[in-house]
Amino acid sequence: MKKDGTQDVLLQLFFGFSPGVKEMQGGILMRTGKRWRKGQVSIELMVIIGFVVLLLMPVLFSLYYRTNQANEQLSLAQADLVATRLASTIDVVGTTLGSSIITEAIIPNGVKSIKIEKNEVNIKIGTYVGDTEVVKHTRFEADASCSDISKMKSAGTYMVEVRSSDNGICVKLV
Asked: Where are the domains of the chain?
């Protein structure tokens, strides 16, 4: 029988041994030329790493989704706090003619617009599902013509002055 190497390959595939291949503790040594090389261990390692990556992908996607969801909820809570603070400051200043209060407004990420019209403080914020509006009502009407609060679109901390005068309540950045 002519020996061309196919018999060794078949014996190795089906029975795990071959007369031309030496076994080693961590895998099988393959003969290439005059050298013996380890081949099976590196392939097994790549397969194991592939399975680990496949198992971790859903966990990583879930963590990413939940982190985005938590950030949106935090932005909405901060927008609600800013709207409540501005509305209550307008109400306090409206009770006394000529009074003025400077308050801090921390604008969260994702704010598209801030409007103070008549008896409303309106903050529009972009979320994953679409735009959400946070609206707070005031007892006193704020004058929209003197208000420059719509410039607060980028995230950050702003100082806002709410002033009562004969013309009405004016809300301005300091």
From this structure: 6-62, 76-173
